[in-house]
Each structure stands twice: as structure tokens, then as C-alpha cells.
Fold this sequence. Notes:
Largest sheet: 4 strands, mixed
Strand content: 15-25%
Number of helices: 5
CATH class of the largest domain: Alpha Beta
Helix content: 10-25%
Distance between the termini: 114 Å
Structural class: alpha/beta
Number of strands: 7
Shape: rod-shaped
Amino acid sequence: xxxxxPKKIHKMRGRRAAGxxxxxxxxxxxxxxxxxxxxxxxxxxxxxxxxNPRYFGKWGFKRPQDLREEVTVLNIGEIDAAAERLVxxxxxxxxxxxxxxxxxxxxIDKILGAGRVxxxxxxxxxxxxSERARQKVIEKGGTIDLPAE
Length: 149
């Protein structure tokens, strides 16, 4: 009776790797340089940096969101235009031609210099005022009460 035997290999008989190259064998992903992320910090470093630059370690920084506080600003021209309305609402007082306005009570943190000043304004409780707004108020004969720091 005849025995079953595997066929003899006749091609590439004298080569060690049998056609798979000298250094990279055909088992265990040898020609690819490893499975998965193998070599990502060695021989595949450039490839990984191109495809996913954030793969290595931490990236950038997270800026704290509460750095600035909200500042309510208003132009001196708007305060001048609203002076009569503030007197009728009871938020300001009128003594002759002089209007006395409590800025802190209105919730204004800073006064800017845009607009025209046509009235004598007496501003109380001002936290901050620009130089241009200060000049406009003083030119019309008004006063500014800044808190002592």
C-alpha cells in the first residue's frame, strides 16, 4: 500500500527565507514592522507623528476661563442724554442746572469718553473713568467723586 507524503519543495530550495526576503520572515507581521502600534516610538515614529501628532503625551494647555471679570461700561454722552429720565425715575437729583447721579447705584463700573456733555454732571461713586470723559465733565463745570484707593 502506498504512503501519503507531503510533496517535496523544488523551488527556492537553497534559500533560507524561501522567497520572503533575508531579514523579514513571513510569520508574525515581520514585513510590516510589527502589529498594531509596534515601533511607534522607534522605527514608525515619523508615520505615527504624521497620522496622529497628539498620540505622544500631553498636548498644549487648558486656559483658565475665569481670568477676566465682567465690566459694565457706559459712555458719558449716554449718561448726559439720560439725565432727565434718571431724575424722573428717582435715580438722580436735579439742583438748579446741576444733575447729581449715583453711578454705583446704576451698576456702571467704568465711564468712557464718547459723546457730548451738555449738562453740569455731578458723578458720585465712580469706580473708573477715562481721561477724555473726565475732561468733558470738568469742562462743563461738573465734578467727579472717585473712591479713595
